[in-house]
Amino acid sequence: MATRLRTGFASISAPARGVLVIFADDGLRLGSAAEGLLKPAGDLFARAAAADGFKGKNGTALDIVAPRGLKASRLIVVGVGKASDLEDFVKLGGAVMGRIPKSATEATLVLDLPGGPIKPDEAADIAMGMELRAYAFDRYKTKRKEGEEPPPQRRLTFGVANVQGARKAWGDRAAVAAGTLLARDLVNEPPNVLYPEEFARRAAALRKLGVAVEVLDERAMKKLGMNALLGVGQGSRRDSRLVVMRWNGGKSGTAPVAFVGKGVCFDTGGISIKPAANMEDMKGDMAGAGCVVGLMHALAARKADVNAVGAIGLVENMPDGNAQRPGDIVTSMSGQTIEIINTDAEGRLVLADVLWYVKSRFKPKFIVDLATLTGAIVVSLGHEHAGLFSNDDRLSDRLAKAGAATGERVWRMPLGSEYDKLIDSKFADVKNTGGRFGGAITAAQFLQRFVDKTPWAHLDIAGTGFSSPQTDINRSWASGWGVRLLDRLVADHYER
């Protein structure tokens, strides 16, 4: 069972309990409050720093066990380099969490720098970074090695100058952190546990936060003409689902912002079956849908002043005797016909119907879709950026700025009518893949046909949604990527 964190804020001069964490710059200067707390220890810090070669550089730490003169069981001094250059406090929080021993049940952080106390928003960011770093998906582990068992609960106390301000800021950050961890949980779940119906049930739990949730079954989708989505799932014994989540926190009648997620709960490739090596990773092919559910949780939990729609198409792509074949032609909800060239290019078929449904029913200000869509985007951008495709420069710019602010970075890729030639079909309006070259681009060109003139952005998160590099704020296979990015987009531009 994963460890739970209890986060609290107290006066910056409150007595330390358990592990004591303070910060030093690259001149080994401490904040005034930290200096006061270390007075009973005399010159312990200076002597230990000299003995260890600790210079206060960013990313380094000095660890002193059972420090003489202090009640704390352990003193950890975290280097921040030039304090004036410190910007990413979420990352700092994650780095600090990584330094606290897993066996520690209590830690006190003195949020004080040589230039003065850390601001309330920055303190809340540090707390969020620690929450994200502490996450572990271990619910299916029944045995552990000796010494690996973490405490069931860990208490973190943040010493701040403005207690009420920090608590208020933490309310919003806690909501976003919870949404991110929810997305991680969904992506990490095994596919025999999280199939379309179970995914829909978990999304429906958002009703407790005031989110209106509708679940459309196959009969309802058939009536709507969602044959592109249904075609993907027809080879599975698990029925497909469409989940529509609405948070109405803004002015009544105001057009919503909309988010669409690809939810392929497991992707074998269908008849165009994938190689066996690493196919187990395809339980994460619903990371886009996981992000949308996590985002809707965050918006509702912090009572965002916005009307928002989240829609996820949930399917399982399996190769039984009823499975869709290469060469099949399906009619999408939009009326456009699609020739199936490769059944492993299934995510765009799911998104096509969901995008059209959201565009037509809700007439949103914009739509952002997220999908682990193509291996081609990983070849292009690796695991550091998600691919961004958009028909709207303003939306694209706002996403890029939100990505820079949160560290969930995007890189804009081209769209153009020239690429349409690659997906022209001899037998239908469009075919579902354009071949090897420009694969991420032709996938986006395909999706663009299902949004008309609605401002739209497509985020290809195949390189960032799961199995991405470990960072200071994530040690999990699933990253929960996109929740913080899109929450920031909404908070900065679409709330009153």
Write a compact overview of the structure shown.
With 496 residues, the protein is α/β, with parallel strands linked by helices. The chain has helices spanning 32-38, 44-52, 89-99, 120-134, 163-188, 196-204, 218-224, 227-233, 287-301, 347-362, 375-381, 393-406, 439-448, 483-493, and strands spanning 4-11, 19-24, 61-65, 74-79, 106-110, 112-113, 116-117, 153-160, 212-216, 241-248, 257-267, 307-317, 329-331, 337-339, 367-371, 386-390, 410-412, 430-431, 456-460.
Radius of gyration: 24 Å
Q: Within the largest sheet, what's the order of strands?
A: 9-10-12-11-15-19-16-17
Proportion of residues in helical segments: 25-40%
Indicate the low-confidence ranges by residue numbers: none
Counted by DSSP, the helix tally is: 14
Q: What class would the helix/strand composition place it in?
A: alpha/beta
Strand content: 15-25%
Largest sheet: 8 strands, mixed
Count the domains: 2
Question: How many strand segments?
Answer: 19
CATH topology of the largest domain: Aminopeptidase
Tell me, rounded to a whole number, the average pLDDT. 96
Task: Measure the end-to-end span.
Answer: 40 Å
Going by CATH, the architecture of the largest domain would be 3-Layer(aba) Sandwich
Outline type: elongated
The CATH class label of the largest domain is Alpha Beta
CATH superfamily of the largest domain: Zn peptidases
